[in-house]
Amino acid sequence: MAADPFIGWMTDIQQRVERTLEAALPPAEAEPCALHQAMRYATLGGGKRVRPLLVCAAGEIVGAAPDNLLRIGAAIEMIHAYSLVHDDMPCMDDDVLRRGKATCHVAYGEANALLTGDALQTLAFEVLATPLPGVAPAEQLAMLATLSRAAGHAGMAGGQAIDLASVGQPLTLPELEFMHLLKTGALIRAAVLLGARAGTPLPAERLARLDHFAKRIGLAFQVVDDVLDCEADTQTLGKTAGKDADNDKPTYVSLMGLSEAKRFARELRDDAFAALADFGPAAERLGALADYIVARSF
């Protein structure tokens, strides 16, 4: 049987992102060694690299330089890794397993985990602020602003604050959607937008379509996560299964039921596909990633 070209592309990008991260992170033997080892532990050798994949797929539409896309993807992945380190800490979700291994605070202690998240966040902006060949400085500054918003109070951090405040509280579907558009969706939107801004400029209307694609697929990502938390086991997930239910967190499964949540994920994927309709073959990999995100469980 012939190899699936999409899987081949995805594997190649994942490996190249890993090498980019390895080169960007401080050496494990450099002082302070414990911090640098924890940064590498939290970032390397795990995860599907969905956000860098989205960066690279969106960048193909605008003919962006592959090396620039890898660097942008690495910066976003560092933000993602920092958020996981902090989310797993006892003061947040208090989890002991991430990507099939002990969470950072379990392996390196709470203080080092806190500093690891801080250091990964700031290194991400250092990586993205280094000049990108062929990208205008004003455009790169706009990228930095986009990532800052996605990671901060109006994005991921704000969504996490709502999530923590919602434990044991009833939420409506619109309230749940707002929370996840920030907590999960903001960084996914940033990945698509940064990739799309790294090459030939797009008209505002076409950029808005890509943003709509990213919003819908970011929400689908969370819906599928909620389904997996209900259906999959700990070994499959690489993190503690059933954690949301145990913590009495509102999820799409708890509000909609399992079958309706699955239907909603497929509906979001179809809406995301519709946003790509006018982009033609250049957007095929973005569409394949939408399928990949939704097909993780069903």
Percent strand: under 5%
Q: Give the overall shape, derived from the CA principal axes.
A: globular
Quickly count the helices.
Answer: 16
Compute the separation of the termini in Å: 23 Å
Please tally the β strands and state the result. Answer: 2
Mean pLDDT: 93
Give the CATH H-level superfamily.
Answer: Farnesyl Diphosphate Synthase
Helical content band: 55-70%
Poorly predicted segments = none
Please name the CATH architecture.
Orthogonal Bundle
How many separate structural domains? 1
Please describe what this structure looks like.
The model has no long low-confidence stretch (mean pLDDT 93). It is built from 16 helices and 2 strands. It has 298 residues and is mainly α. It has a two-stranded antiparallel ribbon. The protein starts with a helix and ends with a helix.
